[in-house]
Amino acid sequence: MSIRSTAPVIAGVALLALTACADNSDKIAASYVSPALYQGMSCQQLSVEAQSVANRAAQASVAQDKQAQNDAVAVGVATVLFWPALFLIKGDGAQAAEVARLKGEMQAIETANRLNNCGITFGS
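Below the sequence we write its predicted structure tokens.
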């Protein structure tokens, strides 16, 4: 095979690798979580729960962003130097699902906050 005939194959593999990369946490949409889970809570309980979920979401986001960064490095190495590095790409998985779930929990807590007239302010 000549270099010219392998170029489309390499380009296709690189494109496939890019679509398999893990997303940064800010690109992951929230999963739906029912606000009914939180409506029975007092304003104080909602505040404590919001802080807990926000802390867990921050940790999950850092881990997801690290995975996205690792995947991007693997694609770069694979594209330029060593194509077997494409096998190191993990893509989105349980970590991304955790980020989506925690984002959904925060939205549900915010909804319960509004419905209960708690007046808790959430950072954006």
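The CA atoms of residues 113 and 120 lie 7 Å apart.
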